[in-house]
Amino acid sequence: MTSPTSLPDGGTAPSTPGQRLRHLLAQTEPVQLMGAHDGLSARIAAAEGFPALWASGLCMSTARGVRDSDEATWSELLDLAATMIEAAPGVPVLIDGDTGYGNFNTARRFAARAERIGAAGVCFEDKVFPKMNSFFGDGHALAPVPEFCGKIRACKDGQRDPGFLVVARTETLIAGRPVEEALERAEAYAEAGADALFIHSRKPTPVEIAGFLERYDGRLPVVIAPTTFHTPTVDEFGRLGVSGVIWANHSMRASFAAMRDVCQQIRSNRGISAVEGQVASLKEVFGLLEYEALEADEAAYTGALGGAAVAG
Ligand code: SPV
Ligand code: MG
């Protein structure tokens, strides 16, 4: 039998994005998936060495200026996810598919499109549509287990690349329900064919996650998003039995704070002198986006002479 984290073809050289992510999840140290929300944040995370990305529903929604309550359509989010996949070639992207936008059929279509645009996998959560971000409010109704299992089965049946992952995320603890229920749900989702389990908690420490993992049979690799527990390191999560750590929203929140601060300073100073030292130089932006390579291509393909000056 193929284990959930081994390569479906039994080989050792991952070739598809899904196979690469499976391979990373099977390592002894947890894989770090950096949250991204557009081509630039994906490119920066890849350049900084993150081996995998999380296309965050919260952050893509925020980047579009809307709330993480299924206000953006799923095709809008997949368009953004596609920009990340293009911007970070070779880096597997796990797409946050929320609840799958309806029933088994919409989830299946979402997953199929995600696979076509080159995602490593999708993650669906066991809430009801429209969902609300897990950190806001208390209205987090859970979907019935058979219904959510049907979504997982439909997506698994519909995928083409056997390496593509369907990650089942349980919001049991977010909904204030007990660990026993999270364990039962985890078992049912594995039985339905899920390739990994995302267990979410919004406690200020990983106490709930640790309580879950102490009793979990380890049937699936487990990923977490430690947004509210700030202190533990990846290694500590690894010792708890975690295979993947998603830094879900830190790039978005960093850019939120930086954009707000620069706007405040420019407006109040009526000039840019105070902010110049705080912002990336255009040279750095052009470097990351490989403007010089384009210049070289122009010379190669059009015969034009390069040498444009780089300001900033
Ligand atoms: C997201 O990034 O959209 C997530 C993770 O679902 S969290 O917002 O931390 O719940
Ligand atoms: Mg989300």
UniProtKB/TrEMBL annotation:
Organism of origin: Kitasatospora phosalacinea
Family: Belongs to the isocitrate lyase/PEP mutase superfamily. PEP mutase family.
Gene3D superfamilies attached to this UniProt entry: Phosphoenolpyruvate-binding domains
Listed Pfam families: PEP_mutase
Keyword Isomerase: yes
Protein's UniProt name: phosphoenolpyruvate mutase
PANTHER family: PHOSPHOENOLPYRUVATE CARBOXYLASE, PHOSPHOENOLPYRUVATE PHOSPHOMUTASE
InterPro entries according to UniProt: ICL/PEPM, PEnolPyrv_PMutase_core, Pyrv/PenolPyrv_kinase-like_dom, Pyrv_kinase-like_dom_sf
Classification lineage: Bacteria, Bacillati, Actinomycetota, Actinomycetes, Kitasatosporales
Matches recorded under CDD domains: ICL_PEPM
Keywords on record: Isomerase
Signal peptide: none
Keyword Heme assigned: no
GO molecular function: phosphoenolpyruvate mutase activity
EC number: 5.4.2.9
